[in-house]
Design a protein that fits this description.
2 strands, mainly alpha, 6 helices, Arc Repressor Mutant, subunit A, elongated, 123 residues, Diphtheria Toxin Repressor, domain 2, single chain, two-stranded antiparallel sheet
Length: 123
C-alpha cells in the first residue's frame, strides 16, 4: 500500500515528537496538529494494522522499521527543502510551510539533484 501525504505527515510528526520527548501518545499528535482525538485514533489504528507503528500497553506509539523509513525520508526532505528556500531569501515560516507541501510531491531524482546542488554550494 502506498501511503498518502497525510500519512507521511503523521509518521514524520511521530518522529519529530520522539526526538523532543521520551514517549509519544495520540494526545501528543492531536496537540501537534490540532486534530481531534477520534481522527488521530483512527489513523494510529490503521497504521498499527499496516505495520507502520507499534502501540504498547501504555499507549505509547513507536515507529516500526517500515514507518521509520518513511518518516526519515520526509523529515530529511522537509529540512533540506526548507533550508534551500530559506537560502533563497524566503522567510523561515513560509519556507517551512512550503517545504511541507513540496516534500510529498517532488521526485527522488529532483530532490537528490537539489540536495547535491545545495550541499555543493555550502562547501
Amino acid at each position: 500500500m502506498k501511503i498518502k501525504e497525510s500519512g507521511e505527515d503523521y509518521l514524520e510528526a511521530i518522529l519529530v515528537l520522539s526526538k523532543k520527548q521520551e514517549s509519544v501518545r495520540a494526545t501528543d499528535i492531536c496537540s501537534y496538529f490540532g486534530y481531534a482525538r477520534a481522527s488521530v485514533s483512527v489513523v494510529i489504528k490503521n497504521f498499527r494494522e499496516e505495520g507502520y507503528v507499534n502501540v504498547d500497553e501504555n499507549n505509547y506509539i513507536t515507529l516500526t522499521e517500515k514507518g521509520l523509513a518513511i518518516a526519515n525520508k520526509m523529515y530529511e526532505r522537509h529540512n533540506v527543502i526548507a533550508e534551500i528556500f530559506i537560502s533563497l531569501g524566503v522567510p523561515e515560516d513560509i519556507a517551512r510551510k512550503d517545504a511541507c507541501r513540496v516534500e510529498h510531491y517532488i521526485s527522488t531524482e529532483t530532490f537528490d539533484a537539489m540536495k547535491k546542488h545545495f550541499l555543493d554550494k555550502q562547501m
